[in-house]
Amino acid sequence: MLELQPNPHHRRAHLVVLTDTGKEAFNRAMKLQAPWINELAQGLEVEDIQITHRVLNKLRSKLEEEQKD
C-alpha cells in the first residue's frame, strides 16, 4: 500500500507514497468518510466551525511551544 521513493530534497529521508493499491484503498475510505462527515456536520453553523478551528490551532501552537522547551 506504501512504498519508499528517493527524496530529491533530502538524501537519507525517503518519501513515503501510496501504491496503486494504496490509492484505491484511500479512495474507498474517502467515499465512506464524506457522507459520514457531512451528516456529522449537519446543523453546525459556519461561524462555530471557524471558532473551533481557531481554538484548536491555538492549542496546537501552545503544545508545540511546550515541546520545544
Verbal overview:
There is one protein chain. The chain has 69 residues and is an alpha+beta fold. It has one domain. The chain is 65% helix and 22% strand. The protein has 2 helices and 2 strands; from the N terminus they run E-E-H-H. Strands 1-2 form a two-stranded antiparallel sheet. A hairpin with a 2-residue loop joins strand 1 and strand 2. The radius of gyration is 18 Å and the shape is flat. The protein starts with a strand and ends with a helix. The relative contact order is 0.08.
Write the layout of secondary structure elements.
Elements: E1 2-7, E2 10-18, H1 20-41, H2 46-68
Antiparallel strand pairs: 1-2
Write a concise synopsis of the structure shown.
With 69 residues, this protein is an alpha+beta fold. Helix content is 65%, strand content 22%. A two-stranded antiparallel ribbon has the order 1-2.
Task: Provide the descriptors you would attach to this structure in a database record.
69 residues; alpha+beta; two-stranded antiparallel ribbon; 65% helix; flat
What level of helicity do the residues show?
55-70%
Structural class: alpha+beta
Arithmetic mean pLDDT: 95
- Uncertain runs with pLDDT below 50, 5 residues or more? none
Over the alpha carbons, how many angstroms does the gyration radius reach? Answer: 18 Å
Q: How far do the termini sit from each other? A: 37 Å
Count of helical regions:
2
What's the total number of strands?
Answer: 2
User: How much strand?
Assistant: 15-25%
Question: What is the spatial order of strands in the main beta sheet?
Answer: 1-2
Q: How is the main sheet built? A: 2 strands, antiparallel
Overall 3D geometry? flat
